[in-house]
Model the fold of this input.
Amino acid sequence: MNTLPVERLDHIVKRFSMIEAQLAGNPDSETYVRLSSEYAEMQDVVAAIRAYRHTERELDDLRTLLVDRATDAEMRELAETELPEAQDRLEAQAHQLRIMLLPKDDADDRSAILEIRAGTGGQEAALFAGDLFRMYERYAAARGWKVEVMSASDGEAGGFKEIIASVTGRGVFSRLKFESGVHRVQRVPETEAQGRIHTSAATVAVLPQAEEVDVEIRPEDIRIETMRASGAGGQHVNTTDSAVRVTHLPTGIAVMQAEKSQHQNRARAMEVLRARLYDMQRQKADAERSESRRLQVGSGDRSERIRTYNFPQGRLTDHRINLTLYKLDRIVMGELDDVIEPLIADHQSKLLAASEN
Done:
């Protein structure tokens, strides 16, 4: 078992105690907000450090009992029984602390932009895109996150050709970031008279929401166009020029928003554009840091098939970590933690292995 960085642990606990003292001293409102945020971020790791050190002291006491000639037979037997359990607990606590001390992705605590698009498979792909959106919507509701649809293009038989939504809450990106990629479904479509299983797909992109300070968008670098909104089958058609398309000229990225309010459309289009540019910057930085790129779950390429949903067998398979679960009915109802937790654990274990080499 590799030793933990004692000086770093001491520094974290000392800083935490200092913040506690400052908060108790009635600081001004701006300082209070800043310190409260830092305090909240440190609470879990400080609790883990204190638990680890408590177990260390417990182990020292048990070892002392075993070597002390004055220890009676009953106490010695009790110490011999408790020592292996305490050693196992200390090792588990040390492992958890190493994970908690790993460098954090700066975007992990952010909200996210969720983009789902129907892929191959025609109408069935659009229906599947709708199923995926509802799955994420239910998962978000269970975690207390807010989902707001920013734009949607309906499928001809239901579902969505494309849907873009903001998912707002603490830590959204950290839990959804591994969802980006191609999701494949195998099932019998409602329109299939002969009961044949069809395969179709939808792509998912999860982008960390970006603030204006994260991405510089110069006015001369964007072109803003207004036009009349239109929708399939005459739905959501406006009689005014309220639809907005924003094009980022240096990259060619274009974002279209076609709801009723032109002002809102422009604001939302800029929000999505910032998220896409910020994501592009992050991916470029990852590509330049080859070690970081190698440690990602999968390649991060959104053309990569990451998951298969097999409805006839009730099976979900995540191909990146060879995870297979036979609870598809519950997963599509939003119980995604059994998929997300192993992905996070796999990512952390790879980072941990790299940091210890």
Q: What stands out?
A: Residues 29-67 form the longest helix (39 residues).
